[in-house]
Specification:
alpha+beta; 2 domains; 26 strands; Metallo-depent_PP-like; PAPs_N; glycoprotein; EC 3.1.3.2
């Protein structure tokens, strides 16, 4: 296979395109010329934090903050909140206004200092058909109908990926762009609401993302802003996160909501969500679970994607070395498991690395990508280490999101979409080849 590279400047793309696709090759050439026009791009300024109130016509029983997540091969978890007690029931069907199926679940709540949450409803529905639009209503409330589309049964499949989302006007811009991308599943490597102990901000965040999170599954892991510990007063970490964002950890054999895995596209893609703020040394539950989980992956036919919060590779001056302990503990496991790509957040900027292992370029290591630029209130991390390390191929401090389009068992297209004056602009892209095809790497394993 021939690999073509375009090296435009230090802060532009190194594009590799498989020779089987002349269309992709031509697209890369056009993209390279367009990219040259963006050299004068100016970094965006911070924007105000949004406060999303409850709808004027809502009452104590109105479902709000609706989001869905995968809950097995053909099931979906529906989560929503009501201010008062209401039935934990979801009615659903494939025709708007008609709900021949129903499922019931449970409701819970939590308190945090002087705050008391609403009723958090948790209902798993299914079995569901793949690549199908379902209409549903929560708690038998006829006033609000939602709909979602299930992921496709086979490849191709598209993931939207964004970290450190927050709830600013930049967040809103990012959400709009992701809506237009028609993704199948959203992956979020931590730092969701930036509530930072102010619990009503969790409610505002839920209302902000509902137009997206109610229509496609959101799969998330925790970041440092989800810890929310207060000495003496609130000593249990991740209280709000665990209560509001229940992930299918038990289905993957994990004992913690902070790390888990799941398969999509009939087992063609294995996604691992790791916990940067859960124990990860060799005696920990996460370490032992990861070894067992990767041991089950059929690398002859599966893509393997990992998400963490604190990046293991980072040439930004912000958060230098904060992922190093986790890297030292777990990197060899990922390397032996032939993980294809690792996504991280935490650093409020974008950066793509080459395939790397133990701080050096390695054709059998994963591509590392930092995507912590969703739109948070803390602003961008704009200072980079100079000169740019050889293993760092593209870096830019801008808000945006990424899209991983896994085309088939061998190739995937990665694009990073910068929020350029509220317009999504592809500022970086690369074709990735699955390590399952690299016989030399599989011999090394």
């Amino acid at each position: 296979m021939h690999i073509y590279f375009f090296n435009i400047s230090e802060n532009t793309m190194r594009l590799s395109l498989p020779s089987f696709s002349s269309v992709a090759f031509i697209t890369g050439i056009i993209f390279a010329f367009l990219l040259q026009e963006s050299v004068s791009y100016e970094r965006p300024k911070a924007r105000e934090t949004l406060a999303i109130p409850l709808a004027d016509d809502a009452d104590e029983l109105t479902p709000q903050q609706v989001h869905i997540s995968l809950a097995g091969r053909d099931e979906m978890r529906v989560t929503w909140i009501t201010d008062d007690d209401a039935p934990s029931t979801v009615e659903y069907g494939t025709v708007s206004g008609e709900y021949p199926f129903s499922a019931s679940g449970s409701a819970s709540s939590y308190s945090y200092v002087m705050y008391n949450s609403g009723q958090i409803h948790d209902v798993v529905i299914g079995p569901l058909q793949p690549d199908t639009v379902y209409y549903y209503r929560c708690g038998s409330n006829p006033a609000r109908e939602f709909s979602f589309k299930t992921p496709p049964p086979v490849l191709p499949i598209k993931f939207a990926i964004v970290g450190d989302l927050g709830q600013t006007d930049w967040t809103n811009s990012t959400l709009t762009h992701m809506t237009d991308s028609n993704y199948d599943i959203l992956l979020l490597p931590g730092d969701l609401s930036y509530a930072d102990t102010n619990q009503p901000r969790w409610d505002s965040f839920g209302r902000l993302i509902e137009p997206l999170s109610s229509t496609r599954p959101w799969m998330v892991t925790q970041g440092n802003h989800e810890i929310e510990k207060i000495p003496i007063v609130e000593t249990k970490p991740f209280k709000a996160y665990n209560a509001r964002w229940r992930m299918p950890y038990d289905l993957s054999g994990s004992r913690s909501n902070l790390y888990y895995s799941f398969d999509v596209a009939n087992g063609s893609v294995h996604v691992i969500m790791l916990g940067s703020y859960a124990d990860f040394d060799s005696s920990s539950g996460q370490y032992k679970w990861l070894v067992e989980d990767l041991g089950k992956v059929d690398r002859r036919r599966m893509w393997t994607v990992v998400l963490i919060h604190a990046p293991w590779y980072n040439s930004n001056t912000a958060h230098q070395g904060e992922g190093e302990d986790m890297r030292a503990s777990l990197e060899e496991i990922l390397y032996g498991g032939r993980v294809d790509v690792v996504f991280a957040g935490h650093v409020h900027a974008y950066e793509r690395f080459t395939r790397v292992f133990n701080n050096d370029e390695d054709d059998c290591g994963p591509v590392h990508i930092t995507i912590g630029d969703g739109g948070n209130k803390e602003g961008l991390a704009s200072d980079y280490i100079d000169p740019q390390p050889k293993i760092s191929k593209f870096r830019e401090a801008s808000f945006g999101h990424g899209e991983l389009d896994i085309v088939n068992h061998s190739h995937a297209r990665w694009t990073w979409h910068r929020n350029d004056n509220d317009e999504p602009v592809i500022a970086d892209q690369a074709w990735l080849t699955s390590l399952s095809l690299n016989k030399a790497c599989n011999k090394k394993k």
